[in-house]
Design goal:
The complex is a heterodimer of chains A (about 575) and B (about 100). Chain A has three domains: about 5-175, 3-Layer(aba) Sandwich (Rossmann fold); about 195-345, TPP-binding domain (Rossmann fold), CATH 3.40.50.1220; about 370-540, 3-Layer(aba) Sandwich (Rossmann fold), CATH 3.40.50.970. Chain A is built from 22 helices and 22 strands. In chain A, strands 3-2-4-5-7-6 form a six-stranded parallel sheet, sandwiched between helices. In chain A, helix 7 (about 140-150) links the parallel strand 6 (about 130-135) and strand 7 (about 160-165). In chain A, helix 3 (about 55-65) packs parallel to helix 5 (about 85-95) and helix 16 packs across helix 22 (about 520-530). Chain A starts with a strand and ends in a 5-residue tail after the last strand. By secondary structure, chain B is an alpha+beta fold. Helices cover about 35% and strands about 35% of the residues of chain B. In chain B, a hairpin with a 5-residue loop joins strand 2 (about 35-40) and strand 3. The radius of gyration of chain B is 13 Å and the shape is globular. Classes of the chains: A alpha/beta (about 575), B alpha+beta (about 100). Chains A and B meet through strand 6 of A and helix 1, helix 2 and helix 3 of B. The site of thiamine diphosphate (TPP) has 20 residues of chain A, from helix 17 and helix 20.
Chain lengths: ~575, ~100
Amino acid sequence: MGQRLTGAEILLESLIAEGVDTVFGYPGGSIITVYDKLYSYQDRLKHILVRHEQGAIHAAQGYARATGRPGVVIVTSGPGATNVITGVADAMVDSTPVIVIAGQVGNASLGTDAFQETDVVGMTGPIDKWTYQIRRPEDVAPAVAKAFHIASTGRPGPVVLDFTKDAQVGVGWFEYEKCDHIRSYALPAPADEAALDAAAELIDNAERPFVVFGQGVVISHAEEQLKAFLKKGGIPAASTMLGLSALPSDFPYYVGMAGMHGNVASNMMTQKCDVLIAVGMRFSDRVTGTPSHYAPNAKVIHIDVDRTEIGKIIPVDVGILGDAAEVLERLTAKIKFSFHDEWAASARRYDAVEKAKVAAPETAPDQGPINMGEVVSKVAELSGRKAIIVTDVGQNQLMGARYSRFADTRSFISSGGLGTMGFGLPAAIGAKVGEPGRQVCLFVGDGGIQMTIQELGTIMQEGTAVKIIILNNNWLGNVRQWQELFFGERYSQTRLLNPDYSLIAKAYGIRYRCVSERRELDEAIREMLDAKEAYILDAHVVEMGMVYPMVPGGRRLDEILLNKDEWYRDGE
Amino acid sequence: MENSNMYIISVYSENQVGLLSSISNIFTRRGINIESLTVFPSEFPGIHHFTFRAITTERAAQQVVGFIEKKVEVVKAFCFPDNSTSAAEHGIMEEYLQNRNQ
Ligand SMILES: Cc1ncc(C[n+]2csc(CCOP(=O)(O)OP(=O)(O)O)c2C)c(N)n1
């Protein structure tokens, strides 16, 4: 039998029933009843008080990406709700399960421009997976149950519950029933046998098969299935940026990251392969270059859980709708043992060129200022590849993606599809809260950290031991790179005059060290990694650093800039 | 370039606040103008039937259908050129609901 509770209490009980123990949020008038009840639930629900609601949702995203469990956000109406919008859009395109509970004015005030009323349903509906307005206390538990079901199944995504005052203060019967069925929402069905057969036949007959995998592999816990598939088929594989760490960096068939700033091997092999198997990825334009010239010699097999992704950008020869783990397991059983040794080994040839022309000068220069890639590579080395790497957006992100190395899955967290500057710091906080036993290192630019720098206050209050590495170049580096390459070095509004980060760190009581000399770098990184508490390493890096290789926008994947004046030429 | 024609996009859905606007948004976001729109209860209990008419290409119409079906409350969506009607719709709906309602 249930019990009589207020809607606010029902919300908290429902969250606990879903296994939630941590929420990220910020109070306000339209959610004050929930916060009042939360006061009595402090032993069961830990609330992390952020400094801006955008911080709450990015923290919840970091939490979800690190743990695989949905992140929960509680905010007030009006500006509280609009402040989470960026994160909702970000979580949608990056398939991150997040549940946002936003306070809302009383039912009678809806649509009257009441104080802090805003059209949350109308604003979030187009950019989230599901939005629902809760108007009665008895609807709270079923809405929360549906929210968790929808956010975490199929292709995961954000859901928003618009929680009116009447539903919070009113009293209703509480009895929790998990949701596992919604009439209009079908869960992924087993993949079509005929499609699997067609795919297996293409793969068995391929001379140069190639896999490009994305975050779908991580979401579906398909890492082992992917390894088995690659081994049996003898198939080399590249990762999208969000797929990073699904395979260990030293996995024999792994050839690196695909796309605009990806590895030469992965992009060249995409263009040369005769069968391309795309797993849990969505052919973002950052991955494909010009789509009409993508993988021109290949028959394309696309495995995805989202029907609208199949054929959306790249026409497919075989589309397989289904969950990556299930599909890969069945497909592995169907394909023959194969070797494509010469083809797989061609990656080494491309790697040698990339290493000589790009990676070695970036990560191991013998003179000049510290490079961004050098810092990233050292952190990977000294942390034993075990850290969760979080990045912001820009050069810090591309360097973080290119030069980090991973031993474990769920070790790379970054804003991919939306490219949200300001994501990094709060996402790192969320990742550390979710995985307190793991080292969490953030790479962030001097621009991006200032977009959510207020979250240093959250770190101070919660004692969250994240390691923050500012790749400080005094520019909005990524935009400056484009201006240098494509806009005649007209550096319009990309020069930054930065605050003294040592004073900022001091104000927040966070350990700080600045490093600008190469000979101090190792020691500084060690000190940071050994610290038990949060730490800011302000790395003064080369000002005009560039991220290469680069496939400029609108180019084919084999049109690769190795530096400002040199295109990659095949066969050298 | 693909030819543009008048398409009917027919949507069966749970009736929920805000749904119509987020469906019509799927058209707007792709720059497709809705020529006409009707909403009425369908012959299936609790399910509403929306029909949109819009001038667009076959490919865009198919994509719109995919994105509409992604909405949690949408049961099924169909599209076909305005000059024909789909007798199959009714059968597909009936079968789908029989399977999902148990
Ligand atoms: C919210 C937001 N605004 C603007 C941009 C466009 N943008 C992409 S990268 C970048 C520069 C980032 O500079 P910084 O944070 O210093 O990092 P760096 O590239 O130097 O590593 C800008 C402005 C963005 N991605 N997100």
